[in-house]
Amino acid sequence: MKITNYAFAYKDQPIFDDFSVEFSSDYLNVLLGENGSGKSTLFDAIAGVNGARNQPIPNQSVAYKVQQPVLFPNLTVQEIINLFTQIGSVKLETETGRLIREDFLSKILSRKMGQLSGGERQLLFSYGTHLLDRDIYLFDEPTAGVSFSNAEYILKMMQELVDARGKTVVVTLHDLKEIETMNAHLVTLQAGKVSFSGTKAGMLDLAGTPDFEAAVKQLV
Ligand SMILES: Nc1ncnc2c1ncn2[C@@H]1O[C@H](COP(=O)(O)OP(=O)(O)OP(=O)(O)O)[C@@H](O)[C@H]1O
């Protein structure tokens, strides 16, 4: 997925100007950047929900897990899963998606959305989004508030969307430990510009340090 020369401003605040980025369908794409660097705004633009007349990549079907899903507080977990399977299909469930459902979601099926913890909500909506059949998948901070072991599940499920279903998947993260061992395509944003795009090895080379966290800090 390639975006070229995209511009977007919120009323009086320009966010992107002549912005270009490419996300690979060969690897899981991890979008990194400081708070306010424009990650969610970029996702909104790709999904076509930012109110801009010009979408950066028109005619693409996009599945989008927003940062803090707050939908239907009195629906149960089972009912939300039913909604996702009606729009998508249970046949699209990946191996790790099945584990998330069986080991975790199945235990809270009768719980109402409004009673879920932040981490439980992330698991539910990340799982549900992966059941949709789209070209591009955007997951905004799917591991925020999620325990380390469940975050591993979520990222593995996203990797399966790439490996088993050949999808373009972009995920924003803040906890770098979660991707320390992953072979991801990293993109860093700095004040509305791409400051790095490539592999972890490329990032370490560019930053001239063997320390991943230090390299990311330099490049966001
Ligand atoms: N609806 C809006 N109207 C005006 N300004 C906005 C709006 N949404 C976001 N912004 C501003 O745009 C900038 C980019 O915000 P965005 O949410 O894209 O950042 P982010 O990289 O996703 O941050 P975070 O990591 O904190 O989620 C910020 O300065 C933010 O205050």
UniProtKB/TrEMBL annotation:
Q: Which PANTHER family does the UniProt entry name for this protein?
A: METAL TRANSPORT SYSTEM ATP-BINDING PROTEIN TM_0124-RELATED
This protein is called ATP-binding protein
What are the alphabetically sorted keywords of the record? Answer: ATP-binding, Nucleotide-binding, Transport
Gene3D superfamilies linked = P-loop containing nucleotide triphosphate hydrolases (3.40.50.300)
Q: Which SUPFAM superfamilies match?
A: P-loop containing nucleoside triphosphate hydrolases (SSF52540)
Q: Which GO terms describe its molecular function?
A: ATP binding; ATP hydrolysis activity
**Record-stated family:** Belongs to the ABC transporter superfamily.
What are the ABC transporter domain coordinates in residue numbering? 1-216
